[in-house]
Specification:
- The protein is mostly helical.
- It contains ten helices and no strands.
- It has one domain.
Amino acid sequence: MSDANLSLIFSALALGYLLGSIPFGLIFTRMAGLGDIRKVGSGNIGATNVLRTGRKGLAAATVLGDALKGTVAVLIARYWSPDLGALAAVGAILGHLFPVWLGFKGGKGVATFIGCLIGLNLIAALVFAVVWLGFAFATRYSSLSALVATAISPVMLWVLGDGRTAGICVLLVALLWWKHRENIKRLLAGTEGKIGQKG
C-alpha cells in the first residue's frame, strides 16, 4: 500500500471522527437554555434523551444534525475515492460514541449510523428507516427499534451486492449493540423507557 493510500485512509477516518464527534444534542440544548443534557434522563447526548426535555423540535434537530454529520463524512470521503466511504462511516460512528471533547463519553450512534447509511447505500437506509419506524410505532421503544433496524442493515447491504461494506457494517452494529447493553437489560426486565417518556 502506497503512502498516498495510507494518507487517504487516515484522512477518511479522521474526517469521519471529527465530524462524528460534534455533540449536537448537547449544543442544541445548551443554546436553548436547558443546561447540560447529560444531567437529564438517561444522561445520553442523543435525540431520545433530548426528547425527554419535552422539546420535540430540539430532538428533531438533534436527529438531523447527528445523521447529517455521518452523511457528509461519507460523501466527502467517497468523493476522494469510492472505497473510502465505509472508513469515514467507521470514523463518524467512533467519533459520536467516543468524542474526545466529552471525555470519550458520547451517544449511542443510531442517528449517525443511518446518516452514514444514506451516504453509503440509500436503499439500505430506507429499509432501516421503515423498520425503525415500524417497530417504534408498534412498541414505542426507541432502543428496540434501533437494535432491530441496525441488525438488518448488514443483511440488506449484502443482498444489494455490497459485501465489503456489509462486513464493516457488522462491526459497527456490534459496537452499537454494545453501547445499548443497558437498554437490552432493561428491555429484558421490562423497565425500558418508552419514546416521549420523561425521567
